[in-house]
Specification:
Elements (H helix, E strand, L loop, with lengths): L10 E2 L5 H5 L31 H20 E5 L13 E6 L6 E2 L4 E2 L11 E6 L2 E13 L3 E5 L2 E4 L2 E2 L23 E5 L4 E5 L9 H4 L2 E2 L3 E13 L4 E2 L6 E2 L2
Antiparallel strand pairs: 1-2, 2-3, 3-14, 4-5, 6-7, 6-14, 7-12, 8-9, 8-11, 9-10, 12-13, 14-15, 14-16
Length: 247
């Protein structure tokens, strides 16, 4: 029987209390309570005691709009599995930016125009083709019009072997074609408007080898950096990974 590759739906991350995590306590949302401050008025304009007036009243609205825009254009996720090792590790918390590929407009079914389409080598977050309530993260290997093939673990695009320094192989055995698609696949020409994605942990990833290319319209964004990382095995943070760029 062929071992099933790891399933790895992303988890939407909530803001975490970093000090609590550093002590090993369970992650929980921040309380949101404002800290106490000494009485006094800061930055009051001359002639407007307390900084009142239209300008002061508008400030909360400006902050609210900026906050909503930030939540719309970015989204935090937690990495639950090892399918993208060593690029992304289980317990990494990443911030995904959605502006580049055209963010969806909430409650409308519309999307803003994309600044650019996904490219080969991009790490992308997208809807799981088999369960649209889940999000996956993988690396884009080929785009529309390109032909992808895997020969004994080597990935070829348009006949050329890809240089993939980020890939790891945890199983030294090579499975023959016809056994499954892990080590020998294709060739397959990716249709226009689709991308072919693979996990960096190539021997243990549920990806386009098993369920085909992903529509570009299902690609939500691209992880920018790791903002927090927690190692369950050691019960502590991975300080060296915090603020690491994802690429």
């Amino acid at each position: 029987m062929v071992p099933a590759p790891a399933r790895d739906p992303l988890t939407l991350a909530v803001p975490v209390n970093v000090s609590s995590l550093a002590r090993g306590a369970p992650a929980r949302p921040e309380s949101g309570r404002a800290s106490s401050r000494a009485p006094g008025r800061v930055g009051a304009a001359p002639g407007t005691p307390g900084g009142g007036g239209a300008g002061a009243g508008a400030r909360p609205w400006v902050l609210a709009v900026l906050l909503l825009a930030g939540l719309w254009l970015t989204q935090p996720f937690r990495i639950p599995s090892g399918s993208m090792r060593e690029t992304l590790l289980p317990g990494d918390y990443v911030l995904v930016q959605k502006l580049e590929y055209g963010p969806a407009v909430p409650w409308t079914g519309w999307r803003l125009p994309a600044l650019r389409p996904p490219r080969r080598g991009d790490i992308v977050v997208f809807r799981n083709p088999r369960d649209r309530g889940e999000d996956f993260v993988k690396r884009c290997i080929a785009v529309g019009g390109e032909t992808v093939e895997i020969r004994d673990k080597r990935v070829l695009v348009n006949g050329d072997t890809l240089a993939e320094p980020y890939v790891i192989h945890t199983d030294p055995a090579t499975r023959p074609g016809g056994y499954d698609y892990r080590d020998n696949f294709g060739p397959l020409t990716v249709a226009a408007g689709q991308v072919f994605v693979l996990g960096d942990n190539r021997d243990d990833s549920d990806d386009s080898r098993y369920w085909g290319p992903v529509p570009v319209g299902d690609v939500a964004g691209r992880p920018m950096f790791v903002y927090w990382s927690w190692d369950e095995a050691s019960g502590g943070p991975r300080w060296g990974r915090i603020l690491r760029r994802v690429r």
